[in-house]
Every structure is written in structure tokens, then in C-alpha cells.
Design a protein that fits this description.
Blueprint lengths: L1 H7 L1 E2 L5 H4 L4 H11 L15 E5 L5 E10 L2 E6 L5 E5 L5 H13 L8 E17 L2 E16 L8 E16 L2 E17 L8 E5 L3 E8 L7 E4 L1 E11 L2 E7 L2 H4 L13 E3 L1 H7 L4
Length: 282
Amino acid sequence: MILLAIALLVPLGSVPRVLAQTADPAKEENAQKVAAVDPNALRGLSAPDAVMTLRNVDGQEIEAKLIAATGDNVTIERIGDGRQFIVPLANLDNYTNERVHQWMDQSPGAVAFNFDVSATKTLLDSNTFMTAGRDLKSAEWSYRVKVANLTRNVLSGAQLEYRIVFDDEVEIAKTVVAPGKGANQQDGQLLDLPEMQFNEEIEFDTPPLILHTYEYVPQRGEREYSRDSIKGVWVRILKNGVVLFEYQSHPATMASLSWDNEDKLEIRVTNQFRDEFSSGVK
């Protein structure tokens, strides 16, 4: 077990000199031949368990639990004593490497993904209509959302879901004014993300959201005033139904809000990213 730990594992916080040395080419080639696996043999495999047998290019094995992955390394916990190590994926044989990559791809929390998300609110259009002393205004707003993958792992098979949170205080249809649906309404979409390499960035514009403002100042009586307002945008990045990352444009005002306003929100599933990126439009 001691010999195996030296050949296969990098304990957390230290990097043994032996792992930094260049392997003997002849020995490495032989190990790769022994470890070669028919790709067809892996197609029927389901996502591997978090506990598995790891084998290095020299054929040495260890039973361990996979903890997390980042870049070209995977963190494991050795079965038996619970010690954690960082294992370079290059040290594993082909079959084990494939199993670990399956786990990384199919287990949502396997890779510690990190993203940079920003959102800029833009006024697209506005108009004002006055009749019988009533001032009716409408404005179209949109968010330009940018997402960058800051993880040294490829992001694939992921989705982005966003909610624009707004107070709907007034509805205006032509010259008819009516009360809105109330505070903390949500409008959003669920989008398929393209595959994103390290440091790659995508951006998109949300569909226009129309807000209304109503004001009436009579010669006698009280002034009437009501307006819609945006509180912010809430973005989630998901994989296999698990949230990898969240972003709120205004955490101070949105911290108490609930994401699951599903009884009031229609989620529209689109392939906006896939269509845009396949056609070369960014």
C-alpha cells in the first residue's frame, strides 16, 4: 500500500518529486498497451459509482471514493483510512481514466465549476400616450447576460435558466388601465448551453419585458400613480437538474425571494444558443 500511494497518489498539500519526473517512454508505452480498452466496451456503462477501483499506468490499484475534480486532477478519499489525495489523471490507465471522466460528466457535483456572470439592463424602446389627462407610458427592457467558464474543465450538457423579477402594478391595453398581477412576478427561459471550454464566454439578450406607468392628475381630487419596476435578474446554471452556480444582479433586494414561482411563470424551453452558435452568430 505504501508503494502504491507513492506511485499513484498526490497527498493534499504536497507533490512528491517522483510524480514530477518524466516517465520511461518504453515503460509508458508498454503500460498504455496493457491498459488499452476497446471503446465499445464502455458504451453500455452507466455513470460509475463514486467508489471505484483506480488503476495507474503501472497496473497498481487502490480502492477510493471520488470527491471532486478540477483541471487535470481528481481528488479522492482512500477507502480504509479516509485520507484524501490529489491524483493526476495522466497517472491513470485508459480504462480508469474513462471511468473517471464518465463520473465527471454525469455526476453534477463532480467538477467544482466556477463561472463569471454579468447582466446589463438596457432600455430598448419607450412611448408615451396622453388622453383625458391620463399619462400612459410603456417601456421595453432587456438584459444582456454574459457567462464565462472559469473552470479548467469543459462544460457540456448544461443548461441556463434565468428569471427577471419585477413588480407588475399596472396593466395598460390601449387606453384601458387595470391593476397588475402584483409584486415579485417572474419571467424567464430555460436555455441549452453550448459546450464551453476554459475561459470561453457566451452572451445573449433576453426577450423584451414591457413595463407600464400610469399617472392621472385631476383638477380636483387625489393624484393617481402606478408603475411597474424591475427588481433584477436571477441566473442559474444547471447540469442533470443540479444547480452548479447562481447569480443575482441585486442580492440585497432579491435575497428573500423564492425561485419557484412556477404557478405564475411559464418557462419557455428554447434552443437559442444551439441555433446561434451553429450558425456562427455570437
